[in-house]
Amino acid sequence: MSELMGDQKLFQFFHHSLLAISPLILGIRIILLLQSSSPTVLDQEPTNTLAELCRRLKILRPVRLLETEQSIVPMTWGLLSSVVIVPASWRDRVRP
Questions:
Q1: Is the CB of residue 76 less than 8 Å from the CB of residue 95?
Q2: pLDDT digit string (tens) for 50-84?
Q3: Beta-sheet strand order (sheet of 82-87)
Q4: DSSP 66
Q5: pTM, rounded to two decimals
Q6: Of 31, 87, 76, which is closest to residue 54 (Cα–Cα)?
Q7: In the 3-class helix/strand/coil scheme, how is 50-78 assigned residue by residue?
Q8: Where are the domains of the chain?
């Protein structure tokens, strides 16, 4: 009887753990899909601005600047490979 209780508790632990980390796994998947579908910004002005900001902030690793057609807020992520993603509408807000 106590073995059955131990198995049930173990099952509950794994079940609750899976429920707890599911939003994290889903969020990482969405970010990776967004990253893979977003082109790199190649325009000289924004890439120069990003390089200058990296220099001022003493960021030594390369930072990728991506843009997406999706309606999102600007985001950044990455530990080893940093990424900044902005909506394509940023161009309308920056240029006169």
A1: no
A2: 999 999 999 999 999 999 998 889 999 888 889 99
A3: 63-68, 82-87, 75-77
A4: E
A5: 0.72
A6: 76
A7: HHHHHHHCCCCCCEEEEEECCCCCCEEEC
A8: 1-36, 38-96
